[in-house]
Amino acid sequence: MILKKIRSFELTKLLNVSSILVLISPFMRLMLFNRGILFWSFFLIIPLFIINIIKNKHNIFPNFYDKFTFLLFIFYLMISRIYSPNISNFFVFDQIKALLIAFLLFINIPHKDENFNLKYALLISGFAIILLYFLYGQFYLRGVRFWIVLPNGLAFDPNMVSASLIYPAIFATGMFFSSKNILKKLFFLFSISVILFFTLLSGSRGGLITIIFAISIKTFSFISFKSKNSFIYSLNLLIIIPLIIGLFIITPADIIERFSISEIVTTGASGRFNIITDQIKYLYQSSTFLSFFFGFGQGSSLLLTGNSSHNIFIEYFIESGVIGLFLFFLISINILKKGFLNKSLDSIILLICVIIWSLSISTNNQVLFWVLIYTSFSFSRNHTKIKKIDL
């Protein structure tokens, strides 16, 4: 079977550039990817994309509107860096790599039949993150947060790491409900527990809310849309709820305190309330006619106010104005529309989760943000002739 796939070149599809970029996206903040090796690799990758586009030219026009919208948005954000307060940072690779990778991804929208490649890439990268937690996880910030610190001292931001576990959480929940084999069901239940537990230990409030939302909506979809087995799925729910409660019970009290309402109010959500308030005031006091429509340029929120926005909508409003915010809404609505039309629930859940995650952290210049937007769009094109939502 394997030899047959190799001969027919089907196996080589797993090695396409898009899947590789999705696979390594959680690790793109490491120092390795701030160096020239990745920059020069773009010059090697671009010819491969051009060849692929020529080979699949019959697919260009059906995807023309989607490609144009996404690439217009990416190009607009890139151009906005020209009038950013610190124009000298225009070619700083670490600051533009997310947009460059987004460009490479959206210029080569894969055929819907290749979505399984992206799913495997997301699952493998999520598994790698969990493995790193086991191998190199350690507590910091007076023992109330748990993060990955590699032997060379490089650390992973827990808020970013939590996003790489969104799709694995969706997938594991779906497999838990759909599997009839008891061993498989137990395995995926264990997977859900591990994802929840490490997200809880990481202390990422936005990450935990996002993961719980993903699991909840996927669970609700089985109970609502699979009417013939709703009773059985409801019984499975009785397993998941005690599991979540149990995880909170065994988690150290100091970490749980971080998620309490009193702690969030006292610290202002780690200062996020003040940051958002200050940036709204800055918008009100400093906006001109041009900045209202075009923004102050990508990266300006940090330079002008001293803090990153920690909210995707405020970030786009400050940095790219009404036009940038409109384009973001346009591509988001486009993904949701395709997801509903093609009955791809995973696409809808993934996009909403990305937006929820982006409400409390600056994600616009993060590779993982664009990768999740890209995979959400790719999943939304999964045309299937079924009567109910594709679970």
Task: Note down, in words, how this protein is organized.
With 391 residues, the protein is an all-alpha fold. It has one domain. It has a two-stranded antiparallel ribbon. A hairpin with a 4-residue loop joins strand 1 and strand 2. Helix 2 runs parallel beside helix 6, helix 8 packs antiparallel against helix 18 and helix 10 runs antiparallel to helix 18.
Sum this structure up briefly:
It is built from 19 helices and two strands. It is mainly α and 391 residues long.
List descriptors:
two-stranded antiparallel sheet; 2 strands; globular; disordered N terminus
Structural class comes to mainly alpha
> Multimeric state of these chains?
single chain
Beta strand count: 2
Shape: globular
Trace the largest sheet across and list its strands.
Answer: 1-2
Q: Tell me the fraction of residues in β-strands, as a range.
A: under 5%
Distance between the ends: 28 Å
Q: How many structural units, i.e. domains?
A: 1
Q: What percent of the residues sit in helical stretches (DSSP H or I)? A: 55-70%
Mean pLDDT: 78
Number of helices: 19
Q: In terms of per-residue confidence, which ranges show pLDDT below 50 for 5 or more consecutive residues? A: 1-14, 383-391
Radius of gyration from the alpha-carbon trace, in angstroms: 21 Å
The helix-strand sequence is HHHHHHEEHHHHHHHHHHHHH
Largest β sheet strand count, sense and barrel closure = 2 strands, antiparallel
